Structure formats: C-alpha cells, structure tokens
Amino acid sequence: MNEGVRMVEARELKACCAQLYSNDWVRTLAGESLHPGGLELTRRLGRLLGLGPGRALLDVACGYGSSALWLAGELDCEVTGVDYAQPSIATARREAAASAVPARARFLSADAEHLPLSDSSFDAVICECSFCTFPDKLAAAREIFRVLRPGGRFGLADLVRSGPLPAELVGLLGWVACIADARPVAEYRSTLEACGFVVELVEHHDTALATLVDGIRRRLVGAQLASTLGKLDLPGIDLAAATSLARGAARAIEDRRLGYALLLAAKPAPGWPGR
C-alpha cells in the first residue's frame, strides 16, 4: 500500500473516532468519563504525576474535558486539553466556562500526532483510553515526549491485549471503540522507550474495564428495549452491532485476552542515571 493511501485511511479513521466520541449517546452508554475507572483512576494518575499548583498538564484526546477540568479543580493545576473532534472541544470549552476553574483551563482542536504546542511546555501529560486509537502511535508518543519538560511524566491508561481478539472486535467499530488496535503492555512500553521515555511503573486495572463494559451492556439492553417500543430514536446507531461488540469485549476480558493498564513514564532530565 502506498503512503498516500495510508494517509487517507488514517485521516478517515481519525474522523470516525472523532464522530463517534462527540456523540451524546456514547456519553450516555459509557458514563461521564468515557474510560475505565472513571475519575478515581484519573485521581490516581494525577497523584502519580505529582500535579499541584503551578504545574502544567496536557490531556491528549481530552474528549469533553471531564478529566482535565476535574484535575484542575481537585489539584489546582493548569490544564490544556487537545482533541481531534471539534464538537468535543466546543463542549469542553462550554464546560470550562461554567466551571470553577475557567482561567486555568484551555481546549484546542488538534491531532495527537501533530501537536500545535511548544517544546518542553508541560510538566505532565495524560492520555486515557485513546492512545490505542491513534493510527501512528510512535508519532503521537514522540509528540508527547517533545512537549514534556525534562523530568516531566506521561501517564498512559489504555486497553491492553494478550493474544488474538474475537472477530467482532477487530473491525472499524472495534478500532474506534478502543479495542481493535489495543497492544500488549510490552509493546506500549517499547514504543515509549523508543522515544526516550523511561517507564517507571505499570499497573493493571482489569476490574475497572470489566465494570465499565458491564455497565455499557446493561444500558444497551435498555436502549434496545426503548427503541423497540418506539420510545428512543438513535438515528445512524446500530444497536445490534454495538451489543455484539460489548458482548465480545466482555468475553475477552473474562478470558484475560483484554485488560486495562496504567503506565507511568518519565522524560529524563540532565543528570539522570545513564544521561
């Protein structure tokens, strides 16, 4: 396949992801935070990253800005959120304006693989349940490394796999749902290390993923019933395909082929061992 075709496919994939996650029905099915562990796991990330007053945080693929705004309010840090989906950024800006921290939060429409941000401008970066949807993960990791200050840290929380996934999880819907291109922990680690990161911590949070998927499955049952009774209209939404995807994800989690992990990685500063 030539490079031009790959670039077109990557753009289309990003557009599909952006369109999916900017729809309100996704928020309804997955919950406010749109990622396993919710704000409790976001709090864990914030503490590991040492966030606090005067610290600058970048949230890559921030969605509606829920995590960024919560961290700004909870830990008094300055936050910047970037997302490929312009509707999500518009929502995040409205949420910020109505929050208690409007002066400490800004949101930009941007591609994670081409961040419009200065070198060494952030103390910490987070990316929750989105890294595995990036077509060029190495490019995104390099950009995150670039915008981090020496000594800064990157908190990555994402789906991980062990072995092949069920067929219903490997198509386009599986990709944009953060499943089809989930990688083993070792591969995420090697991608980060190839950019210069030092991986300091890996934690597994598979139970949080199982809880999220179980909740989605229950809400899908309710949505299907309401749709059948004519009480819910979801134009363009294939509830049967979504239900199949959720069922396959639950089976993969039970078989330990699909999980959720948190990685903490540092950008070495001058004087670090080996530097």
How does this model look, in words?
- The protein has helices spanning 3-21, 24-30, 38-48, 66-75, 86-97, 137-147, 172-176, 185-194, 206-228, 239-254; strands spanning 56-60, 78-83, 105-109, 122-128, 148-161, 198-204, 258-266.
- By secondary structure, the protein is an alpha/beta fold.
- The chain has one domain (3-266): Rossmann fold.
- α3 packs across α4.
- The longest helix has 23 residues, at 206-228.
The top level CATH class name: Alpha Beta
The rounded distance between the terminal residues' Cα atoms is 39 Å
Supply the number of helical segments: 10
Helix and strand succession?
HHHEHEHEEHEHHEHHE
Unreliable spans are: 1-8
Order of neighbouring strands in the sheet with most strands: 3-2-1-4-5-7-6
Number of E strands: 7
How many domains would you count in the coordinates? 1
CA gyration radius, whole angstroms: 18 Å
Main sheet record: 7 strands, mixed
The CATH superfamily is Vaccinia Virus protein VP39
> What structural class do the secondary elements suggest?
alpha/beta
Q: Output mean pLDDT.
A: 83
**Shape descriptor:** globular
Give the CATH architecture.
Answer: 3-Layer(aba) Sandwich
Short description:
By secondary structure, this protein is of the alpha/beta class.
